[in-house]
Amino acid sequence: MRNLIKADMQRILRKKSIWLAFIFMVAIVAGEILYKVNVAPDRNLGFAVAASDSIGYVGLVLGIILVLNIYADDFKASTYINIVGHGISRLKYTITKYLDAAIILVGIYACAGVLVFGLQVGLGMALSSLEISFIFWRFMSEIIFAAAGISVASLCFFITENSAIGVLAFLGIELVIPVALEFVRTNPTVVKYHLDRIYLNDVCSSMLSDFLMKQTGAGLLKLILVIAVYVIAAIVGSIIFFRKKELDF
Q1: DSSP state string for 123-186
Q2: Which contacts of 36-45 are long-range, i.e. CB under 8 A and separated by 24 or more positions?
Q3: Any residues with CB less than 8 A from the CB of 107 and at least 6 apart, and which?
């Protein structure tokens, strides 16, 4: 499995789209911070807000690129059939694909963190402990949110082998459902059921608030809930569906 991950990393890192995502991350994070620091009445607060807001865009673009490069390529070219045919178990193949996504996802966000820290030092920002905590937990919530979306999209790939459905599933998780829930909030008949409170977006936002308010137990509970419902369940579902899938060797 180690060799398969290594081969996948080499293939993915040769793709221009991954480096475009990296350049996009640098441009968005740096541009947002430099702009808000210059216009905000409180430079330190402006820095913290800009760092937090900019990272939200990274997950959307990176998630689409990861979904396409890690899953769509393999299914489109039927590479997975050759890999399984050469003795790699379906279980190892499925887990490898999730590990590929996790490595790239954490790597890009880690680079974003280094960039934010570098800009903080370079601009001479003296952030308070609350502002640093806010940036850190926003990073964590965005990573979880992006990972959940990628996991659900991956499940759709393993079920349908259709790249369009996988990308649409990711966009649904990241954009369509959150926008739809905004309309739900305006409907007095539906809003009493509080459907928005159980969806990923609001759970992650609530988790962020819990950690900032030092309500660690509630934050951890929501974190475990998100990982169990969106990530682990998606991985288990992918393993089950892919194990039963008929492959045309």
Answers
A1: HT----HHHHHHHHHHHHHHHHHHHHHHHHHHHHHHHH--HHHHHHHHHIIIIIHHHHHHHHTT
A2: 37/123, 37/125, 43/123, 43/125, 44/125, 44/126, 44/127, 44/128, 44/131, 45/131
A3: none
Q: How many residues does the chain have?
A: 249
3-state secondary structure (DSSP) of residue 132: helix
Q: What is the pLDDT of residues 28-83, one digit of tens each?
A: 888 888 888 888 788 888 888 888 888 877 777 777 777 666 666 666 555 666 66
Is residue 158 within 8 Å of 238, Cβ to Cβ? yes
* pLDDT over 60 (residue 247): no
Structure tokens at 222: 């929501």
Per the CB < 8 A criterion, the answer to whether 134 and 48 are in contact is yes
Tokens describing residue 30: 């740096």
Question: Three-state SS for 12?
Answer: helix
Instruction: Give yes or no for a contact between 62 and 20, defined as CB atoms under 8 angstroms apart.
Output: no
From CA 238, how far away is CA 61, in angstroms rounded? Answer: 23
Residue partners of 179: CB distance under 8 A and separation at least 6: none
Give the per-residue pLDDT at 249.
43
pLDDT tens digits, 132-155: 888 888 888 888 888 888 888 888
Between CA 235 and CA 58 the distance in angstroms is: 23
Structure token digits, residue 164: 């369009």
Contact 151, 235 (CB under 8 A): yes
Residue 13, φ and ψ in degrees, nearest 5: -70, -15
DSSP string for residues in 77-122: TTHHHHHHHTT--HHHHHHHHHHHHHHHHHHHHHHHHHHHHHHHHH
Contact between 110 and 29 under an 8 Å Cβ cutoff? The reply is no
